[in-house]
């Protein structure tokens, strides 16, 4: 089924990562959200520095591209803004997180539909790992500014549920594959 639910080891690591990140977001929503913004700022700063280095190297060779300079200044401005006013960035976080959950759930929907149609052993957790993110993502998208803390906690809960469902799917598929070696659909 689905190349043994995407590739078993990758699914296990991803499920463990989702669960760990989800627990941190559930237990420490304020600290996690601020850390998220700071990490985003650091990533933008690193992106800007890479373009600054490219611009300076090209300028020495008389091929300086003003686009690289622009791609230095814009991320630097965002990084400074995010470090000084992380709450402003967090105000739109529920909309972003809701969109990410919707994309995750919609991306798994074809797998869930195939699993239900073909009656695969891991169909229920796989279906839940598609439906739960869609429902929670829709709630966050349609009411994004209600509360950032609740949004972070909901996102954390969704990650835990998604990771647990993925883990259950891998385990059930492994058991089904071990008990039905040589019969049924190719895993």
Automatic annotation (TrEMBL):
Q: Which domain of life is it from?
A: Bacteria
| Transmembrane intervals | 12-30, 36-56, 68-85, 123-142
| A cellular component annotation (GO) from this entry | plasma membrane
**Keywords attached to this entry:** Membrane, Transmembrane, Transmembrane helix
Write down the InterPro entries for this protein, in alphabetical order.
Answer: Acid_resist_chaperone_HdeD (IPR052712), DUF308_memb (IPR005325)
**Keyword Transmembrane (UniProt):** yes
Ribonucleoprotein recorded as keyword: no
Q: What protein am I looking at?
A: DUF308 domain-containing protein
